[in-house]
Design a protein that fits this description.
12 helices, about 375 residues, Aspartate Aminotransferase, domain 2, Aspartate Aminotransferase, domain 1, alpha/beta, binds glutamine, three-stranded antiparallel β-sheet, seven-stranded mixed β-sheet, 2 domains
């Protein structure tokens, strides 16, 4: 057999998605891959039912249906205060996964360097490798997951083409403060670097934390490539609707990359999702209240069991400290957890550049009854190891 590409040899399949398969195999409550088990908002589903009988069954415009881009531009202006051009500053993609890949392919040349904070969402590693770029990892140091500005500047001194910013952050739940974002922005301007954002958790925040869009800081619009999606905000991860928002010069290139990668996101789903993009502020307030309740329920349960964990400021992930179990491999621990306790988690090592085996990640985007079932199963965890 001829050899396969060396480009793909440098990474494995996604451990997050592998853990979903392992959870299913053992009938575990799956708190690994982050997606809800509750229904999306009814008005979106009602509109989807109507759309099936309307004329949305062929390709939409490759960079996104007009209606969708206009609704997104209005929403974006509402939340950031900046008016954007739905025709020249948006590309609709198949999830933010494609958005990030398209952004990386649009700005990097093979051999370029890209700053990635560690811990990081595992796709960024693969995105970088597929683009032929080289990651420079900058640690977010537990327990507060802060970065050292000097270490960050040392990374910038290597003249990276871009920095990837996941805010609110998966997996550590960090919400970057305005002051932290200003440090990043100042360095990006000083060293003439793009910032590629992953802001899919922009609406999942816990008081008193607020999301600041780095693109809104002075001088940052031109160099920020914002990626986000509807997956988490409207509980429709399977719809694969994401987008890139950036300056027209960048978007022209992202449009080309996206066109040849996937042609376009699903037309009927874009049309139905417009309903969500047009929701009022009450929707986002209710979403935050719902996730705040889930966070409280789950964290209090973990506290009763007595396992040390992070307290997320945003997003819906928790890192648990499993050092007491004395495992060399957190992957083996997660496999045993799924099999013996019946709860699915992601090994923390798949998020860290540093050799780290003391964490596992749970998410809590689940019905309260699912979270309670997971907590019941976890109650006698120590007897099962
Ligand atoms: N972001 C989700 C997680 O970290 C998964 C997303 C995906 O699998 N595409 O679990």
């Amino acid at each position: 057999m001829p050899t396969l590409s060396s480009r793909t040899a440098g990474f494995t399949d996604s451990v997050i998605r592998r853990m979903t398969r392992i959870s299913n195999q053992f009938g575990a409550v799956n708190l690994s891959q982050g997606f809800p088990d509750f229904a999306p908002p009814q008005p979106i589903l009602d509109r989807l039912a109507e759309v099936t009988r309307e004329d949305f069954h062929q390709y939409s415009i490759t960079w996104g249906a007009q209606n969708f881009r206009e609704a997104l531009a209005d929403k974006y202006e509402h939340f950031t205060g900046r008016a954007i051009d739905p025709n020249g500053e948006i590309v609709v993609t198949c999830g933010s996964t494609e958005a990030m890949m398209a952004a990386m392919l649009s700005v990097t040349n093979p051999g370029d360097k890209v700053i990635v904070f560690s811990p990081f969402y595992e796709n960024y590693g693969a995105d970088t490798i597929l683009s032929g770029a080289e990651p420079i990892y900058v640690p977010l140091v537990p327990p507060a997951f802060t970065f050292d500005a000097d270490v960050l500047e040392a990374a910038f001194r290597q003249h990276p083409k871009a920095l990837i910013l996941c805010n609110p952050s998966n997996p550590c739940g960090k919400v970057f403060t305005r002051a932290e974002l200003e440090i990043i922005a100042d360095l990006a301007k000083k060293y003439d670097t793009f910032v590629i954002t992953d802001e899919v958790y922009e609406h999942i925040l816990y008081q008193p934390h607020k999301h600041t869009y780095i693109a809104t800081l002075p001088g940052m619009w031109e160099r920020t490539i914002q990626c986000s999606s509807l997956s988490k905000t409207y509980s429709i991860t399977g719809w694969r609707l994401g987008y890139v928002i950036a300056a027209p010069e960048v978007i022209d290139t992202v449009k080309k990359v996206h066109d040849f990668l996937t042609v376009g996101a699903a037309a009927p789903l874009q049309e139905a999702a417009v309903t969500g993009l047009r929701f009022g502020d009450d929707y986002y307030a209710a979403l935050q209240a719902e996730y705040t309740e889930k966070r409280t329920l789950f964290l209090e349960g973990l506290d009763r069991i007595g396992i040390a964990h992070t307290v997320p400021e945003g997003a819906y992930y928790i890192l648990l400290d499993i050092s007491e179990f004395g495992y060399e491999s957190d992957l083996t621990f997660c496999e045993h957890l799924a099999e013996r306790v019946g709860v699915g988690a992601v090994p923390g090592s798949s998020f860290f550049r540093e050799p780290e085996n003391r964490y596992i990640r749970f998410h809590f985007a689940k019905k309260n009854e699912t979270l309670n079932e997971a907590l019941n199963r976890l109650a006698d965890i120590r007897k099962k190891f």
